C-alpha cells in the first residue's frame, strides 16, 4: 500500500481562508463517499472477484488483488488532497496508524516472497523430472505441499501519540479511510497467501489483525472466499498441477501425463513470475513511503 507523498503533500488553494474552511468542511463527507465508491466500483467490475464456480481462486485472479490495493491507495491519496490534509499536518494517531499498517504489510509481502520461493523450489524438481522422465524420477514426483507460515502480526501503540488531543474533522476522515485501506490490503494479501499455501491459520490471523472484514466493501468477498480458504483450497492452477502429479506415477502412459505436466507447469511459472514482480514492486514502494513518512515525522519533531 503506497501513500503517494507527493500528492498527499499538495494543498488545495482557495481564494480566502474562510472560503477554504467552508469548502473543506463540505468536502469531507463527499470525499469519503468518493473514496469508498472508487473501491466499490473496482470490486464490482473485477472479473476474478465475481467469478462463479466451486473454486474461483486462481493465480491469474490473484494479480487483481494487487490492482485492488493500488486502486485503494490512489483513492486514499486523492481523498487527502481533496480535503487539504497533507501528510505534513497529520497527527500522531494517523502517523502511528499508517506506520503500524505498513510494517505489517512488509511482513505479509515477505511471507508471499517466502511462499513463492518454496513454490519455485518445487517447480525446479518437477522441471528436472520432465526433462529426464525416467521411471525413478517420475516415482519421486510429489504434490506441491501446503505450508503453515506462522505469522506473528501486531500493532504497537504509544509510539507517536504523546498526548491525547481531540480528533479534528479531517483527521477523523483520514483515519476512517486508513481503516478501510488497511482492511482491503490485509484481505487481498491474505487471499494471495492462501492461494499459494492454503494456510488457514494465517488468514484467520490477518482477519483478527484487521478487526474483521465486516465493512460492506469487503464483507461479501470475505464470506465467499473464506469458505474456500478454510476448506484448504489452493489456487486452481496449483490444484490442477497437483492433480497431474498425483496421476503420473500410476499412469500406464506416464509420458503423456508428463506432457500435460509440462504445459501446466509453464502456465503456473509465468503467473508466479508476474505475482512475484507485483509483490516485489509493492514491497519497494511501501518501504520507500514508510521511510519518507518517518523522515517527515522526525523533521517535524525537530522543528517544534
Automatic annotation (TrEMBL):
Coiled-coil ranges per UniProt: 251-278
Domain of life: Eukaryota
Alphabetical keyword list: Coiled coil
Descriptive protein name: Protein BPS1, chloroplastic-like
Native species: Dorcoceras hygrometricum
